[in-house]
Structure formats: C-alpha cells, structure tokens
Amino acid sequence: MFADRARIYVRSGKGGDGHVSFRREKYVPNGGPDGGDGGNGGSVILEIDDGLNTLTDYRHVRKYHAQDGENGSKRNCRGKNGEDLILKVPEGTVIKEAESGKVIADMSGENRRFELLKGGRGGNGNQHYATSTMQAPKYAQPGQPSRELELLMELKVIADVGLVGFPNVGKSTFLTKVSNARPKVANYHFTTLNPHLGVVDLPDADGFVIADIPGLIEGASEGVGLGFEFLRHIERTRVIIHIVDAASTEGRDPIEDIYAINKELEAYNPEIARRPQVIAANKTDMIFDNNEEDPVQKIKDEFEPKGIPVYPISAISGQGIRQLLYHIREMLDKLPKDPVIFEQEFYPEYMLGGSDEPYTVIYDDKADEYVVEGPRIEKMLGYTNLDSEKGFTFFQNFLKLNGILDQLEELGIEEGDTVRMYGLSFDYYK
Fold it and tell me: How many other CB atoms are there within 10 angstroms of residue 394's CB atom?
C-alpha cells in the first residue's frame, strides 16, 4: 500500500550531567574543583531526501530518539555530545503535533532541513562554581532534560494540477498520453492507491506537474474507503481538472459525478473547492449519433455559465488534448506562482517547556498593571500576528501551556485588569 501517513514518537537527547570532583595529585594537597561539563544531547532533525516518495519506513518503526549527552568526568573532561537523529522524509511531508493537529513543519520548497527538537544542554561541572568564599563546591549542574513529541506525518503530493474523477473515467490514460508518467491502465472498477505524478512538456510554453489523484467516491470526505488519503493529495494543487465519462459508457451521469466530487471537496476543505477548475469531457470517441442531445453540450450548458470551461477530449486518440493543456497553462500563468505551503502553527521550542530562557510575571503597583517579560515572550510576540484571531488564540494557548496565566491568577489578577508585554497592553478575560 502507498504509505502517505504515519504516526511516530520522537525524543531528543538529554544533556549530560556536570561532574563533581577535585584535583588530587601528589604535592597538591588542596587541588581545586575539576569536574567537567556534560555533553549536549542530540537534536531531532528533519531532512528532505529526494530519493524517497513514501512514508513506508515510519509505518514499521514508530519510536525514534536522539543520543543522550555523556556526563562530565574528572580532570575537567567534558562529556561527549550525543549524536543528532536525522529523519529523512520525502518532499511534501507535513509534520503535525499529533494531539492538536497543528502544523510544525512543511518539508517543501526551500525548507529542506528543520530542527524539530533541540537536544538538552549539558550541565556545568563544579569547576564553574568556585568562588573566593566557596573554593570546594560540591555541586554540579544537571543536564537539561530531553524533549519529546508524538507526530503525525502526512505526505501531500506537490503538483500544479490535480486530476480528479470517479474510477474508470480515463484519468490514468489521460496522464499517460500527456506526460512522462506510466501508471498501470486497465478497466478496473476500483482504483490504484498511488497518486501518479507526471511532467507535461509543451513545445512553446512552460511545462507543469500534473498528478493523477486516485479515484474519489461519495463519502470520501467522511473517510469512506480511503477518502482522506486521496483528498490529502490535492491540497497543494493550483488547478483542478475534473475528468468525466461524457459517453456514460458505464451508465453514470457525468453532470452528477462533477457535483458529487465538488461536494466531497467542499466537505473536506472549502478552500480546495474554490480553486480554479476545468472539465475534461472524456471518451468522446465513444459518443455515437443516435439523434439524442449531445452529452458534451449538456455539460457545457450546465457548467460554463458558472465559469467552469468544458473541453471535449479523447484520451485514447488524443483529440482535444492539446487545446486543454494550453488552456491550463494560461490558467496557471494567471495564478500566483508560489507553491501552497502550510504555515507553522506549533513551535516545539516554545510550547513544550524545558527552555532555559526564563520569564517573569510581576505586578507593577505604580502603573496598576501586570507585567510579563522574558526572552521567550519577546520571541513569541515576534512570531505571532496578534491582529488575526488565529494568531491571538495561538498566543493565548502559549501563555496557558507555559503556566503564565496560572501565575497571573496567583498574583490576584481579575477580569478587566491590564497585562503589559513589551509595550503591548491587553485586558485580561478568562
């Protein structure tokens, strides 16, 4: 089976503990502290591997952890750093925090390497704590703890154009005709599980990448069959081609099929349903003149007034395909060229705790305000767009997860009181 989804557990390495020891040599009766520092724990890093196109490996092994840092030792010997854990993923993999479903990283485009979890820093040995009044410190700093996450990994195919349609309408034949992709083609009433990518080359225009998204069925948006797995792959496409059996060779109504697929797209993600569409009325070579209304004209009458162009084609003979491809190229030229990238919503460095960057929560009685400050707060304010409802909710969750709201309540804050953070003032409401 095509593996495009996996759930795994990852953990960074713990920092090694600092060491407590004292120099003991002949003729040096009062040697000072010589405890070495602990080594840093290994980090968990994501990296794109162009040789991969599935997440199969992550279905068999579910737990991954970076190496812990070694403890320090005597004679000022520093512990060895733990080795980083590098997880190789195919381009297009979206990494989410499993419980909330929030995006941590989209391994696409220029984002080819991403530090997911930083290893714990090694602790200082007792050599760092000697003072004029404490010349024999018996204390060393422990290493920082590791961090852990449960991840949901989803591979979302990267293509300019997505082909959708019910099984057996000719999508695979069409893709074979127009590109370098070679999917298996047969008269199946079920569908392949693999989305196939192909590059369309046009003689006097820029080419584009096209993906045959496996056939949809009604109920796909509710997870019927392999609905979610199929729909996931069209989230990045900029143009959608509906391929329908205009000849109704299996008794299906092409107009009803188009509405059914659009209903599934709308239910899964309304933004996808609003993307530009074009209809390829396939199997025109199977339409015979029997004095009935032209089925292609019926499709045009139904959808062209809605702004959706209809192109009659035959994937077998190639008739009409050239005009369709050039129209798609024109559509792409008018659309933004930036690929669809999923923005980061979950920041492990700031939302998992364990950071050594402190923050303070105090009450300023002169200004009658509660003041929250610290490097982590300042960085989060820099990351977050507080003008948007989504950004403000995200920042509120950050304050809650890090115990800042609890500290404000311990100081006696009440609804309507003012909280100040680096020049920004907020009214407090539960």
Answer: 20
Higher pLDDT: 49 or 138? It is: 49
CA distance 42 to 242: 48
- The pLDDT mean for the chain works out to 80
In the chain the first and final C-alpha atoms are separated, in Å, by 48
* 3-state secondary structure at position 407: helix
Closest to 282 in 3D by CA, of 256, 321, 309: 321
Please write the tens of the pLDDT for every residue from 338-394: 777 887 877 787 666 545 556 788 888 888 888 888 776 776 666 666 676 666 777
Q: With 0-12 CB in 10 A as exposed, 13-18 as middle and 19+ as buried, what is 6?
A: buried
List all residues 6 or more positions away from 232 whose beta carbon is below 8 Å from its beta carbon: 4, 5, 154, 155, 156
Residues in the chain: 430
The answer for 329, left when phi > 0, alpha when psi is -120 to 50, beta otherwise, is alpha
Give the bridge partners for 351, in sequence order. none
Q: What residue type is 65 in one-letter code?
A: H
Tell me: pLDDT of 327 over 70. Answer: yes
CA proximity to 305, closest of 317, 297, 316? 297
DSSP 8-class letter at 410: H
CB contact set of 103 (below 8 Å; sequence gap of 6+): 94, 95, 96, 342, 343, 344, 345, 346
- What's the whole-model pTM score? 0.64
At a CB cut-off of 8 Å and minimum separation 6, what does 174 contact? 163, 212, 243, 280, 282, 313, 315, 321
Task: Please tell me the distance from the alpha carbon of residue 82 to that of residue 213, in angstroms, as a whole number.
Answer: 42
Note the pLDDT of residue 413. 83
The answer, yes or no, to whether residue 228 has pLDDT greater than 60, is: no
CA–CA separation, 11 vs 292, rounded Å? 66
The upper half-sphere exposure of residue 411, i.e. CA atoms within 13 Å in the direction of its Cβ, equals: 22
CB 113 within 8 A of CB 88: no
CA distances from 420 to 184, 381, 396, 399, 401 (A): 62, 12, 14, 13, 19
Question: pLDDT value at position 221?
Answer: 47
DSSP string, 150-176: EEEEEE----SEEEE--TTSSHHHHHH
Name the token pair of 217: 């069925």
User: Residue 87: is its pLDDT beyond 80?
Assistant: yes
